[in-house]
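[Q] Does anyone have a clean structure-token version of this?
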Amino acid sequence: MSTVVETDVLIVGSGPAGASAALALSTYGVPNIVVTRYANLADTPRAHITNQRTMEVLRDLGVEQEVVAQATPQHLMGNTTFCTSLAGEELGRVRSWGNDPLVQAEHELASPTRMCDMPQHLMEPVLVNAAVARGSQLRFQNEYLSHTQDAAGVTATVRDRLRGDTYEIRAKYLIGADGGRSKVAEDAGLPMGGQMGVAGSINIVFEADLSRYTAHRPSTLYWVLAPGATVGGIGAGLVRCVRPWNEWLIVWGYDVDAGAPDLTTEYAEPVVRTLVGDDDIPVTVRSSSAWTVNEMYAETYANGRVFCAGDAVHRHPPSNGLGSNTSIQDAYNLAWKLKLVLDGTAHPRLLDSYTAERAPVGRQIVTRANRSIRETAPVFAALDGLSPQTPEQLWANIAARKDATEAAEKQRAALREAIALKVYEFNAHGVDLNQRYDVGDSAAIVPDGTPDPGFARDPELYHQPSSRPGARLPHAWITSGTRTLSTLDTIGGGRFTLLTGIGGEAWIRAAEAQEVEIATVVIGPGQRYEDPYGDWARLREIPDAGALLVRPDGFVAFRHASAGPDAEELLADALRRILGHA
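[A] Here you go.
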């Protein structure tokens, strides 16, 4: 172990969290090395739903259009279907992922981006290629073994699986993005809540031309209510579209207490045939793998100079499509803070805000994802399909909904209601965008003395913008000359941004007087940026001469309603607090 490699940040894991951490850090000019024990990036679809907030992150990091070019677009995602098989009877649908006309308007008002379906085996190369092009080093088949840390940095022991030897990497900080069985999190002693192995699931990746059963009702997800579908798994059988309409992934369950079955083609193909429902269609099974449904989250995301992100700190089923989104957003939150600490702009205390801000989000999404699984049970219950019974009994119950009887009418109503409840899984726009960091918990947010407005509508279903410190900057379309752009396009780039309007000249001077780089944006008639629709004026929640200081990750850090002679002092004090110098 004579060789010691040095870098600023060592990242363990090249999945969504690790790859996006590398991309953000390299974009900000921070040297970093990524090690992964594997010989390649993800080779199966895995995570796929990519929500608007994540697309905003990718937009800021300069890879949004690469993702859009490869992803399944939003309009092909939204007829979430419940059926007895793809070729069988349809029981109902949910307009999903922003495809309900009313929800579509909410999506368009909330963000300049559109959600999409980007399978993980396509997403990872986009993130990694951009990161490496900007300076990240990626080492395949290099396995993290252990680490020690001291006041100046972290020393990790790594095994080169090709050469068979070990060596050390000395970094100022270590990011553990090594998945749901994270060794970094274990070695760091991060306390966890919840439990692992709640239920057993199987992924079966296969190819088949299923256009005759799906193209007329385009969707990412087709849920199959068939005998055995409630055993383990995620509440029902699932046929997921990977690439329309020829590449697919099935999720099926198994009894976790009995252990995973032998995942041969002989096992997988009958499962595929059952869920497709057409034995004449040629099917090619590409791979099968077992996994467990988890309900676990870390109570703290860091120990000293070691930070964890993604599945390492929140482990949950794929319901709501939250996993890779939250992982990418974890990394985005952490990267700018590391950058400012490493270049001396911020005190290391700034890094304490990572756990303060992201751990509550992790707990929320673990709870929501597991609740979504349980919310599938009423669909079966409406068909009296939860109790043990023969397949013939289940089919008879399903057929009974077509009868002209009072009991059948009640069954139809119960089924409609149960399927409609799944909107909390498939159209939870608020879960995607309503993250607000608590000004009482995070030192990187300066309270402005206003009361928490709460949410006027269901916070899981509806996005509700706010400019209050701790909230994501609201999106509004503004103009600059002949160009139309989002308010979100004026921020980011690894720096703070101060937004003001006519009469806010004192804030501009205050920003220019700071040692910290702050971009300035003035929005108003005759200014560089104008608000022709008046949307920004309605969303900003402060007068023209007020100011919003926005962090590099797009969250409002400081807000003041007016400009005065003390603007420079107020801004300097806010920055001291945000950067940990106060």
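[Q] Thanks! Anything notable?
[A] The CA atoms of residues 31 and 160 lie 21 Å apart.
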